[in-house]
Amino acid sequence: MKTDKTEILKALAHPVRVSFLEWMREPEQNFCDQAHPLEMGICANQFEKKCGLSQSTVSAHLATLEKAGLLKTNRVGQWAFYSRDEETIATFLKELKSTL
Question: Count of domains in the chain?
Answer without folding.
Answer: 1
